[in-house]
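Hypothesis: this fold can be encoded by more than one sequence.
Test: take the structure tokens below, design a sequence, compare later.
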């Protein structure tokens, strides 16, 4: 089963639960169902495999029983809402980044600490690269990378 989770520990947990022989795990306790998966399809596959193995699923903040048809319906609705919420968040982030780019804001990265102009100025004054690196508080490799970025 391929799962799309937001973080690796949850994926490893689900994989290990699905690989354990029946009878080793009796109950899975989670805060909310959307912590298990943000994808409705993956979440339903995980829950159905657990229910087939007679593993009880308890969502602490959402008090309902997954062992009956009503509980499964509620779980599918909640997982669908979680997926929709995740897609909305992603779309909002993309829209915000596009708006920032339109305003001329640089997205990502950080400002360089070492500027090629400083290196060139010190080089023209007769400093060697090792001395420039000590002066600017970086490695010689950092100097060469800064000069390469300038091109």
């Amino acid at each position: 089963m391929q799962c799309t989770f937001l973080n690796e520990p949850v994926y490893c947990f689900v994989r290990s639960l699905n690989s354990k022989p029946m009878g080793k795990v009796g109950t899975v306790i989670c805060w909310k169902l959307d912590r298990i998966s943000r994808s409705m399809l993956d979440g339903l596959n995980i829950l159905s495999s657990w229910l087939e193995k007679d593993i009880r699923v308890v969502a602490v903040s959402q008090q309902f029983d997954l062992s009956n048809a009503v509980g499964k319906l509620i779980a599918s609705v909640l997982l669908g809402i979680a997926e929709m919420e995740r897609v909305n968040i992603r779309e909002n982030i993309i829209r915000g980044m596009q708006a920032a780019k339109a305003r001329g804001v640089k997205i990502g990265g950080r400002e360089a600490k070492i500027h090629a102009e400083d290196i060139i100025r010190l080089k023209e004054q007769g400093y060697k690269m090792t001395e420039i690196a000590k002066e600017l508080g970086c490695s010689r490799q950092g100097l060469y990378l800064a000069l390469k970025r300038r091109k």
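Helices lie at 8-19, 40-52, 69-102, 116-124, 129-136, 140-150. Residues 5 and 74 are 21 Å apart (CA to CA).
Hypothesis status: open.
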